[in-house]
Amino acid sequence: MTADDDPIAKAAYDELAETYATNVRTNAYNAELEFPATSSLIPDVDGKRILDAGCGTGVYTEWLVERGADVVGIDVSDEMLGHAIEQVGDGDCTEFRRADLEEPLEFATARSFDGIVSALALSYVEDWRQVFSEFARVLKPGGFLVFSTGHPIDEFPPENDEAENYFEVERLTKEWDVEVPYYRRPFSEMLNPLLENGFRLETIVEPQPTDAFAEQRPERYEKESRNPVFLCVRATMR
Ligand SMILES: C[S@@+](CC[C@H](N)C(=O)[O-])C[C@H]1O[C@@H](n2cnc3c(N)ncnc32)[C@H](O)[C@@H]1O
Question: Domain named Methyltransferase type: which ranges (predicted)?
Fold first, then answer.
């Protein structure tokens, strides 16, 4: 694979991995806004086999293993995976693999997972019909998919003046320590690909900041209490 063929966010996450690993468990936006909401949607996983799709440095993998799951964590960034292995361990209950969510999940047989968690990773995938079709293939009937992503309102003007046409899937960039390319999409292009692939929509959460967020980021609390930043979804395979 040449760098030109690499998934859009791989290089950025390879570069960000060290900082991400240090900050993700304490950063107010992750730890006190996205994580509490997404994790609240995950059902009992004790004894279940779960795919952590876009596992990054393994925050959700660790949480799932602590609750009795066997977890396969996949990510496209070797550097992020390196931190996941360091922090969670590649052990009896965990397996980490390099895999691209834009491609078929060749390592996974049909109906081999009880659940899939995909936190903040799908923004880097252009075609949600393809990825949800793969999720549908590898999930057992009745299996769950919990995912989180940027909220379509937060990713559109006035919050994001780079966006041009609400109704399009647009490739944009955000500036963290490095430029991170991502795709924004309308709300319908989040839910319809899910429904078209046989998922039943169960719950949607538009998280609001916790009290701990207010203590950590008082200057952002007021704004984030009024404006959605993330969208968290639970769906079930029919
Ligand atoms: C914001 S991080 C989220 C990581 C983790 N789920 C969490 O909540 O901390 C996004 C992750 O998606 C991964 N990613 C981006 N594009 C991907 C792709 N096409 N296939 C698999 N993983 C991808 C990145 O490497 C990065 O680790």
Answer: 51-147
